[in-house]
Design a protein that fits this description.
The structure is a single chain. With 275 residues, this protein is of the alpha+beta class. The protein has helices spanning 9-20, 28-38, 81-91, 102-116, 152-167, 171-181, 223-237, 251-260; strands at residues 2-6, 50-56, 58-65, 71-74, 97-100, 119-131, 143-146, 184-189, 192-199, 206-213, 241-247, 262-274. The chain has a twelve-stranded mixed β-sheet, sandwiched between helices. β4, α3 and β5 form a beta-alpha-beta unit. α1 packs antiparallel against α2 (28-38), α3 packs across α4 (102-116) and α5 (152-167) packs across α6. It is globular and about 60 Å long. The mean pLDDT is 95.
């Protein structure tokens, strides 16, 4: 078995995408992050990413670590987690955590702490869903429309309010990219924006829905569910598959997406490292 590390997203894409595209829904996060860096659409970063591929005849596993984040293992097989952890320990002085399939994330964390010390704590569980048969969900009022050019500040603020951990920084740049790519939709009631739903451009025919956000004072009116249904329909109309992630600690969102036609594919965990 051969474990390789690179900071070249283009070379990594060429090496691992034939393996990942066998199931582009299951590997959506790695594929979208690598592709955006390979084609130059990701925001500028002042530190390198580290991409790992495991080879046994052909590619059998992949992982990535982008600046400011933990290692992402996705659906990595558990028996590959230890050599992947060793590869990252050889190039990274420190690490905030790891995320992925629970057995793999646990094995990675144990090996990392063996080599670097510290403790590992599971902090979050997420579930990947794939859209089956779409059901349109109703809302109390209003309707959908694409994001307008004068809503960059609004979308940026909502991104900061709802997804500070996921987006970290560069909220306005992120909002501008949504506008440029036409991948952000707004639910409007009486001329006022009340909810937003975005999605990622397709990678091998798969679009990942998100972020989904409604300000607290506008919740419980069905806006996010209705808008998610609309965005999902747009994705299907373009000939693509739709998928999304939910927080397992939020039973409301899991129920709503199930009603819209999304069905579970896999569960993942986030593990945080502390000294």
């Amino acid at each position: 078995m051969d474990v390789r590390v690179t900071s070249d997203p283009r070379a990594f894409e060429q090496t691992v995408f034939p393996f990942l595209q066998q199931d582009p829904v299951l590997h959506t996060i790695i594929m979208s992050n690598v592709h955006e860096r390979a084609n130059g659409t990701a925001r500028a970063e002042d530190r390198p990413s580290y991409f790992v591929s495991v080879h046994d005849g052909g590619v059998v596993g992949v992982a990535m670590r982008t600046p400011g984040r933990g290692v992402y293992l996705g659906a990595l097989r558990p028996e590959l987690a230890e050599p992947v952890a060793d590869a990252y320990a050889d190039v990274l002085p420190e690490l905030t955590g790891v995320a992925g399939d629970q057995p793999a994330a646990k094995a990675f964390a144990e090996r990392w702490c063996e080599r670097r010390g510290g403790q590992a704590t599971e902090t979050k569980g997420t579930r990947l869903h794939k859209l089956g048969t779409l059901t349109s969900l109703p809302a109390d009022a209003g309707g959908p429309r694409p994001m307008n050019a004068d809503e960059v500040d609004l979308v940026s603020t909502w991104g900061h309010d709802g997804f500070a951990e996921e987006l970290r920084t560069g909220y306005r740049e992120w909002a501008e990219r949504q506008l440029r790519q036409q991948t952000m939709w707004i639910w409007e009631v009486d001329g006022e924006p009340v909810s937003m739903v975005g999605y990622h451009l397709p990678i091998f025919g798969v679009c990942r829905v998100g972020p989904v956000y409604t300000p607290p004072e506008r919740r419980r009116h069905g806006y996010a569910g209705a808008l998610t249904s609309h965005v999902s329909a747009e994705i299907l109309a373009q000939g693509n598959q739709a998928c999304l992630y939910t927080d397992l600690a939020n039973p409301t969102s899991n129920k709503i997406y199930h009603q819209a036609g999304y069905r579970p594919v896999a569960d993942f965990v986030d593990v945080e490292f502390t000294a």
